[in-house]
Structure formats: C-alpha cells, structure tokens
Amino acid sequence: MRTTGRGQRLRLVAAAWAAGLMVAVAGCSEPPAEATSVAESATKEEIAGTGLHKMTLTAKAMERLDLATAKVAGGRGGLQVPYGALIYDAEGRTWVYTNPEPRVFVRAEVIVDRIEGDVVRLRKGPAAGTAIVTVGAAELFGAEFDAAH
Prior knowledge:
Helix content is 27%, strand content 36%. By secondary structure, it is α+β, with helices and mostly antiparallel strands.
C-alpha cells in the first residue's frame, strides 16, 4: 500500500518537468495545419460562484481526444477512482473531470486518502456512479486554462 507523500510529489515534479520540456520543444516548430484553438474546439462557461467551468467539446474535439471514462466506485472501502483520472494543479490540489452529460466536462476537487497501485481511494470526491474522465484529463485541463496559448 502506498500513501500520498514524497513519491507522489516526485511524480508530480517529474511530470511538470516533462510537460515543460514538451512545451519548449513544441515552441520550436509551427503547429500542424489541422490544429485548432480552444475557442474552436470547446466552449467554456463559468459556473457562478465556484471558480469552475463547464467545458463543452465539439464532436471533432471528442474524436481527436479519444477520451475514456469510468464511474466512481463506492462501497465499504469508500470512493475510489483509477489513478489516471487524477489531475494536480499548480497549488497541489487534486482534481478529476466529471462527465455529467455527453461532451460536457466539469472539474471536481477530490481529496486522496491513499493510492494502492492504480486505484485511488478518496476521502472526498464525486458521488459513486459519477462518470469521470480516465484518459485525456490533462488535455481537458489544458483546454480549460487555454494552456496552448
């Protein structure tokens, strides 16, 4: 059994470093002709009083991102999600993207209790049965904060 802590922070730092390197390398070339801006791929609506956004992707963006989802599991052990669903922000807060309706995504804060391999046990998070993004969450995070520009 692993717990959140130093190892998780090291993975976060390594991921941030790798992402920075990818941005630096990507900055050396022209974007592909088929690239579209966030404005062309998604609409972003602020959810009043929350600091969160409702992201609605176009059908083309959904096809291009090839997102995968799963449901938050619940039971005697509490809430659990796949490790791939987690997103960390610059302040170290942990999030997942919920998928409340087709092509719609909303970031939801979670509090991690512990990580056991590829399973994350949550102290706090979306209700059991809530659809969450398990592949492509980083791309949604980038789109929400327009990280491409």
